[in-house]
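Exam review. A common question shows you a sequence with its structure tokens and asks you to describe the fold in words. Practice with the pair below. Do the first one on your own.
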Amino acid sequence: MIALTSGGLGLLWSLTLFTPVDESIPATWPNVLVMLVAGLPCAWALWQCLRGPLAGPPPEQGRAVRRLRIALYAAAAYGLIYPLMSDWFGAAILDIASMAALVVLFPPVLGSGLRHADQVRIVGFLGYGGVSAQFALALAGLRMPGWLALIFAGAALLWAILILRAQREDGRWTRSTVRYGTAGLVFPFVSLPVATVLGDLGTVYADATGAFDVLFTVWLARSAHELARPTQPAGTAAGAEQTAIQP
């Protein structure tokens, strides 16, 4: 309502799309509605991050689990503040550091459920190490060959897939959490062509497609929350949904 009466979308745009404001976009009901809808996934992600684990005494946790939970929460926090960061250098450093920590800390917690753990670590370091190299080249004013960047991106994607597969077979995480992670990996491949098509309708529609980028952040937060639940026998994660806070 404020956007419609004031004739400007700047404040609403900043609170829902987290992208540079396009002052040429008029304050119409369709545009306001699109922004409000785009803000819902972010609000949902914020609640998923802040709600914490299930009530009750947490199970006894080893050092590896505690470290992974801290790293997951740190990565989720970064996912929430990333759209608000204007310093791309700092954002890139935090992104690389948070994901590199997960590459190191996930395998000990997953244990035997993660097949070929050493190879999975190598794939993870290849992926996110490549991102670091690409970032360093950009600082030097150089550009990484497209085929090499594609290899690094593929390695990072493969690492995430292997972690999600191990999570699915581990009784500590629910199916919903694994689905959030899977959706977080799939959505970028869908949003790009959709944004290209919707771009003809206006910047607000194209930018709104990025709202579901928070799915990966939700996966990070829920993965941390559910590590505080009592361990369930392998293969019972679906049944454990009954005791978890549902999405």
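Now try the second one, then compare your answer with the model answer below.
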Amino acid sequence: MPVLSRPAILLAAATVAAGLLVAPGAALATPSTPAATLASPAATLASPGTALAAETTTELTAAEMKAAIATVTEATVAAGAKGWAAQGGFSISAGGSSLTGWQRLRMDRVRWVADSTFAITGSPESRSVLKQGAGIYDPVGDGMSRSALKMMGRPAVQYVFEADKSVTLDKAAPGPVELAAPTIAAGTRTVHEDGTTDYRFSDPTVGDVTLHADGSAVLTAAESSLTDDGLTVSMEIDYNYGEQDVPVPVAGETIDAKTLTTGIAYLNMASSVKYAATDGAAATRKAAKGGKIKVATLRKLVGKEAAAANKSAGAAVVKVKNITSGVRVHATNPWTKQSVAYTVKASGKKVVVKKA
């Protein structure tokens, strides 16, 4: 929806001030009404006794609001052709407790890079980066990953890179309007004397939403507040448009996801080897049904458990080697050179598991 022109704003404001409960358009369409005398802005301004309101508010149906926001979206996309940024604070409260924080999303549409930064007040910030046609850099957050990186001799790493040549900014990141309000519903439009416009409606995921657009229908700010079952989440966002400087993590602070997964798997190799051996032994006993243990069955079932352990870990850590009467289940950490091993052997009607 195009922003109303200044004469139309004055006309609508004067109509409200005169106490006429009709839409400005209806006043224009009916020359016989008293409002017809307001059709000339000059005549309106010439009357010293006429009061001009600073704004006018109109109820919009869901369809009308969607059409209005579509215009805002179009103007906003054009303004952000080279890039845009959104930054703001948030607060969350529940059960007498609360926390605050801030978040920022930057889109560089020249170099096709985006980043999202998030922080809770008093805690370190967390930043993710997306590079179109390359992949996503996520922060190293959990303690196990940190322990694995230390074990691997790479404690300076801050990002985990997941390669994905199909990733794009448009598919992976929301637009400015979608960031503030994923869905559009019926609500109100308030047009101010300076040409700016506020749109208010409710979104099922973020609650009561207010979008602020400038005189060119470009989104400049947004607020939202959601209260549900004792939880209240409030957010404020400010936007700016133009080319953004979004740095991409360098090699020294990055590790690819597959390598980190392998490192974590070797960090936990002792338990993986043990479970493969003991679970394989248990499966063999069950298969024997109280009879004599068959070596071939033992090797098959222990091998199956080792494969399951490797699949769960995401890396081929656990190895199985045939030995007399059974198998040797083992692993060697390529970074620390430490090893762990168990033997699983058939002995009559028993399966014997020993740490090697």
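Model answer, second protein: Residues 268-355 form one domain. The chain has three domains: 6-53, 62-241, 268-355. Full marks require stating both points clearly.
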